[in-house]
Write a structure and sequence with these properties.
105 residues; two-stranded parallel ribbon; alpha+beta; 18% strand
Length: 105
């Protein structure tokens, strides 16, 4: 029951929770990963290139979902990305250069 609720919370309520990951699209797999993170009840999500293998539409769905968790559920979401469009949506941005923290933007 909890799996169904979590899948529903990430927009996958109609997906059979017994499906194997290979049976899902890239966007669905990313949202399942977010649902797994929510299952831990931790209020911090670390997302390393969460849209890296997604098309633009699915990438937007994932970023919007992460932003909703921050706004509505009081999560702390830390995203590592090379996508400047995603970075521009963050509350705080730190830039790494040559393996070091270069500047707070």
């Amino acid at each position: 029951i909890k799996a169904k609720e979590l899948l529903s919370s990430v927009g996958l309520g109609d997906v059979d929770p017994r499906k194997l990951p290979a049976m899902l699209s890239g966007g669905q797999q990313q949202r399942v990963a977010i649902a797994r993170a929510l299952a831990s009840d931790a209020k911090v999500i670390l997302a390393d290139e969460p849209t890296g293998n997604l098309d633009t539409e699915n990438g937007k769905v994932v970023i919007d979902l992460l932003k909703k968790l921050v706004k509505d559920e009081n999560y702390c979401v830390i995203v590592v990305t090379h996508d400047l469009g995603i970075a521009a949506q963050a509350d705080v941005v730190y830039k790494m250069q040559d393996g070091r923290l270069a500047v707070e933007c």
